[in-house]
Amino acid sequence: MKRFVSILFLCGLLTVSGNSQVAAQTIVVGDFAEKPTDLTPRMDPVYDNNGEKCANLVFNVKDTTFVIEGNLGVLKRKTKVGEIRLWVPEETSRLTIRHEGTFPLRYEIPLRIVTLMAYHAYLDLETKKTKEAKAPTPINVYIGAGFNALSVQGLSVAVGVDISHHVIEAGGIYGIQKSDNLYFYSGDKLTAAYQYQAIRGFLKYGYDFKPADMAGVMPFVGVAMNVISGKAVDGQTTNTEDFKRASSVSVIGGVRLSVLLGKYVRLHITPEYDFGAYKSKNCKLLNENDDDIKKWTEGIGLNVGVMLNF
User: Fold this and answer.
1) How far apart are CA 186 and CA 112, in angstroms?
2) Distances (CA, A) of 153 to 178, 197, 244, 245, 274
């Protein structure tokens, strides 16, 4: 009886050991590279929903039961001994790879996928901790143009860099809105008369969540500087330039909502709020005398525009 119990105990240990070994298995992908000599995408073309010819992803495998999904879909799959070949649309950027007994692998493709090109890699299950070469950090550079309303009303331009969803953006707004004519007196004597416009420079940091491949949500914070310049009112005598310029600095916060229109173009709408952090003496004076100028330095803003990704 004791021998029987001992045998059962040993079998239990082996079972636990075996289960833990399976649970420790991980899916690994390596040596992902272009293979220009592989002409299969050209010889056996498959078209995506936009009528574009697909690229090929070829995985060398020991086990062909891997389930592979692409963020833009998989149009065709061929399985041979030791090989899985997929036809995927251009600009596919992420794969979800599944295998029984393991956690799914969400694999960020380290190269840009282009039409009619073949890419080869190995795909395997590993039970040991292996030191893999780190995939290159995805970096995306973009330029943007749009129209800003509610605060400094005018045309906006920006350039930004997205490093693994962390976004740094710099740009400016050229204000086209003009203030009312403002008159300055010394006693009863008119000393200056100006009409004002503003330009703005800004720097932002945000994190673009991209909850879907077609859409992005990016909360951000930043800082903006407004330079308000006056032009002498026609027909009025201006004896001093003391009130010609003003400036302010704002802390800004908001959310950029974007949607993909094509392979490289995104449309965005960006509400934000300016918290006036600093105002020059002239800026405070102008704010007291013109509501539009006050809106340029603090309050709600809204930008609508497009971004071109590279």
Assistant:
1) 66
2) 9, 10, 20, 18, 14
CA atoms of 77 and 56, how far apart (whole Å): 10
The C-alpha angle with vertex 27 and arms to 25 and 29, in degrees rounded to 5, equals 145
Bridge partners, 33 (sequence order): 120
The answer, yes or no, to whether residue 69 has pLDDT greater than 70, is yes
Angle at 72 between CA 67 and CA 77, to 5 degrees: 40
Domain 25-126 part of CATH 2.60.40? yes
The CATH number, out of the four listed (3.40.50.300, 2.40.50.90, 2.40.160.70, 3.30.720.120), of the domain defined by the range 139-309: 2.40.160.70
Which of 22-26, 102-106, 141-145, 153-157 is least confident?
22-26
Residue 133 confidence class, pLDDT cut points 50, 70, 90 = low
C-alpha to C-alpha distances, 11 to 4, 153, 176, nearest whole angstrom: 11, 76, 81
Taking the domains of the chain in order of start, what are their residue ranges?
25-126, 139-309
Torsion angles phi and psi, residue 136, rounded to 5: -60, 140
Mean pLDDT, the chain, as a whole number?
87
CB of 182 closer than 8 Å to CB of 193: yes
Model confidence pTM above 0.90? no
Q: Do domains 25-126 and 139-309 have the same CATH topology?
A: no
